[in-house]
Design a protein that fits this description.
Elements: H1 8-22, E1 26-27, H2 30-37, H3 41-47, E2 73-76, H4 82-100, E3 105-112, E4 120-127, H5 131-140, E5 142-143, E6 155-160, H6 164-169, E7 176-180, E8 185-189, H7 195-214, E9 225-233, E10 240-248
Parallel strand pairs: 1-3, 2-7, 4-6, 6-8
Antiparallel strand pairs: 3-4, 3-5, 7-8, 9-10
Helix pairs in contact: 1-4, 2-5
């Protein structure tokens, strides 16, 4: 992690995780997280169901927030100003009360990218009631290799979906995504939309790659694309072969579902 005067974001995250671990209130096992997601309260309430499974045994979830809060996302490069510091300390206080009331933290480490010089150790922290968010994240990117397990993460994202009541009582914004770019920490407050995890980590990883490029150490670029392996016939000879293809496009344009 980069050190700067904005390190309050990381200090609060580290303090939160340490307190939870000391109290035995951290869950990191993917199987246990998946089990918790079976009774996701938001999904069960929306569907009136007993679990989050479909008829074929797959998990399917419902969220309260259905889009990313781009207009409420604040990116800063220096120390957080007085207003942002107040929000961050409020978030830390929310977690202190949550853990004191018997809550648990779910902590998941994953790997974004497989290139040895351009991969990113991503840590995500959510309250246990939102296990579904980590189940989806677990499926999206790569497992952390054994040699990097236990190491310091390159970037951290902390989410408080149930932030609204605390924020209202304390005169804080009901939804706020605070991004400390230099220290690669994001606090996402007031949203249970999975895209905040995906975009949050991608944003931080791309900033790290930009810094590498500016320092003359290569760099990388995230693209909005989907990859497929297609089984096709060669034009000459008609032999069946596997070929890779990349589909570029905006959300909802058919990158996953399109067939050649």
């Amino acid at each position: 992690m980069n050190g700067s005067s904005g390190a309050l974001t990381r200090e609060l995250a580290d303090r939160l995780e340490s307190a939870a671990r000391e109290a035995g209130k951290v869950v990191s096992d993917s199987g246990e997280i998946r089990a918790l997601a079976l009774t996701d309260p938001v999904t069960l309430q929306a569907r009136g169901a007993k679990d989050t499974l479909t008829s074929d045994g797959s998990m399917a979830f419902v969220s309260r927030v259905t889009n990313r809060s781009a207009a409420r996302t604040e990116i800063f490069l220096d120390a957080p100003d007085e207003r942002r510091e107040r929000i961050l300390r409020g978030a830390a206080d929310w977690f202190e009360r949550y853990l004191g009331g018997g809550g648990r933290l779910l902590v998941m480490d994953k790997l974004m990218g497989l290139h040895p010089e351009h991969s990113h150790h991503c840590r995500t922290i959510v309250p246990s009631e939102y296990a579904r968010m980590l189940v989806m994240w677990d499926k999206l990117i790569f497992d952390l290799p054994p040699e990097r397990a236990g190491g310091e993460p390159d970037q951290v994202e902390i989410l408080i979906p149930d932030w609204g009541h605390y924020a209202r009582d304390n005169g804080l914004p009901l939804v706020c995504i605070l991004v400390d770019a230099q220290n690669c920490v994001t606090w996402a407050l007031g949203s249970d939309y999975f895209g905040e995890i995906k975009k949050g980590h991608l944003r931080m990883a791309m900033y790290r790659e930009k810094l590498r490029y500016l320092a003359g150490r290569g760099g990388g670029l995230g693209v909005h694309a989907g990859g497929k392996v297609l089984r096709v016939r060669e034009a000459q000879g008609g032999e069946l072969v596997d070929r890779g293809a990349l589909f570029f496009g905006l959300s909802g344009t058919g990158k996953t579902n399109s067939r050649p």
